[in-house]
Amino acid sequence: MQEIIQLAIYPLGMINSYLIKGQHKHILIDTGVPNSENKILKQLKKHQIALEDIGLLIITHGHIDHFGSVKKLKDILNVPVLIHDADKRAVQTGKSLSDTLKPNHTFWKKFLKPRLLKGKALPCEPDIVLYDNEEYDLSSYGIQGKIIHTPGHTPGTLSVVLEDGQAIIMDLASSGIFLGGIMLHTRMKHPPFHDNLEQVKSSIDHILSLPTQVFYLGHGNPVSRKSLLNYRNRFFNQS
Question: Which pTM value belongs to this model?
Answer without folding.
Answer: 0.94
